Amino acid sequence: MDHVSESQGSDKRQRLYPRGIVKEESLPYVIALGFSSGFTALVVLLACVHFYYVVKYITDETVRSDMYWIVFMCPITTVSGLIGMIVPRAAIFLNAVSLAYLMFCLFVMVTLMNNLFGGRHALSEYLTEKQVVIKLSVPPVCCLKCLPTFRPTEANLKRIEWMVFQTPLIRMCLEILNMVVFLELNHRNHWWFQMSNVLGLSSMFLAFYACYVMAPLESDRLAQYRFKTIFRLVDAAQALFSLQKFCFDLLAAIGFFEEGPILPSLGKSQFITSAMLSWEMLLLSILATYYLRPSMNSVFDKYHRQRSGSPSPQSASSPNMPELPPVRPPPSKKQQDSDNLSLPANADSPVAFKKCKIVPYQEDTCV
């Protein structure tokens, strides 16, 4: 009788004081979702500010197009992660979208470097003139001094670009195969998914290595454009996303996360990855806002023309560095053909001069 009366009393208390919408086991998820929503809103707000400055103060259309990809890198990553936290069934597909976008941003860094120089041909001419060679002994294999060096020809530069561009292509193919295997098995506890992660990481490291080979070639020339800072921010975003996702997926595969009433072990790993990326991308956005502001970055050429009375960021940071021309469009085919022309010496001229090579976008300089 006492047991029956006690159960009736508990049922009565439950009717009088019903449990809230947020249950005790779901409270950590709700808190993490709230913080991630706030961080994502701040990232999107900063991206709108960055987009405004890119549209208003960058004249060159090709450079502006490359900057669009970099501006939307953090918001696309955080928004995709937030939607995946709200809709866990779509988290796998949204992570694939974010990863492919981040991998493509690596290729955009290479095209941005070429566009700042005026094209791959102009970059090859500049490196050849400065007698700069392509070195393979860069991090993480900088200790291997026996690796060969290559001339900075257009063909070699194009091969390095394809070493970077292969990673978004391979990542997209792997994610499509992952979705096919998941739909067939209805679970991810299979050796294929671990092999897919290893192949994806290998492709990513190869792209990182190609970027590290390419970045030192023009570090001095593009100092006023803060190219190295942009590269480091993109590199950090790639590493944070890929390494965290690999580590948490591996922990879920070995049974580190328990199956819960709300999310399975794989869902928990994806939820934690998205929650961490929200504040990490906010930190990268804040760093980009400070270090790449128009007053310290010559890529915003229209901003400095409007304030021509103030010293340029390049002259303030390194006064001995020669002033570079503004951002210019890539040379046309006719201008590229004129690179091989030379002017003969004029015997009747009062001032004798040697043969001069015509360099695009520069004054004729005597050899």
From TrEMBL:
One of its GO terms (cellular component) is membrane. It comes from the Eukaryota. Pfam families: Solute_trans_a. It comes from Steinernema hermaphroditum. Signal peptide: none annotated. Residues 303-347 are annotated as: Disordered. This is Organic solute transporter alpha-like protein. It is found in: Membrane. The chain crosses the membrane at residues 29-55, 67-86, 92-113, 191-215, 269-292. Residues 322-332 have a biased composition (Pro residues). Residues 308-321 have a biased composition (Low complexity). Keywords: Membrane, Transmembrane, Transmembrane helix. It is a multi-pass membrane protein. InterPro entries: Ostalpha/TMEM184C.
